[in-house]
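Take a look at the protein record below and tell me what you see:
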Amino acid sequence: MLDIFKGKVTAKDWIFVGVVVFIAALVAAGGYFLLIGGERAKVEERRQELAKLDKELGEAKEIEKNIEALREESTGMTRLVDLFEKRLPEEREIPTLLQRFEKLGSELGLRVQLASIPSRKESRMETIPYKVTATGLFHQIVSFINMLERDERYLKISDLDISSAQEAGVSNATFVLSTFRFITRDAGAAQEARTAVVK
């Protein structure tokens, strides 16, 4: 080894240099592959992120194209909901509404009785049903039902039964008259609190 510095290069010296160069090459190659491998993984990750962002951008552009149509649809839905809510009576209006129906039946010559049935709550909607018994001429009963169905308030008639046996032209009809109301979150919480106090 020292001979190399004296100007003599032996076979041992060449072997030593070869081993050093080989080890250096291995270290350099390993470092290169580690470095490149890590960078490739980062590049692939960035490529996937870019593809995802590109897809989201495409979807956003598609939504932007249709934004006016979506706004018009939303406005239309809001109008429909408002119209529907206006047709639903408020809780305090219901007794007056029932009196009006009884009066309407009387004006047609019917004897009308309304009996409350327990209400049902589903999600944010409460169904408030009444069992109606109407006694009178068949055409009077039909007129009464038609008037109820055309009322400005949203009403549903179900379980209609008109007796076929007529005595002196008099028929009996029974049906369920339901109205509905939306339950606001505050009203639902207040109802739960009242129920808890009663218990």
Q: What stands out?
A: Confidence is low (pLDDT under 50) at residues 193-199. The beta strands are 111-116, 120-122, 125-137, 155-162, 170-182.
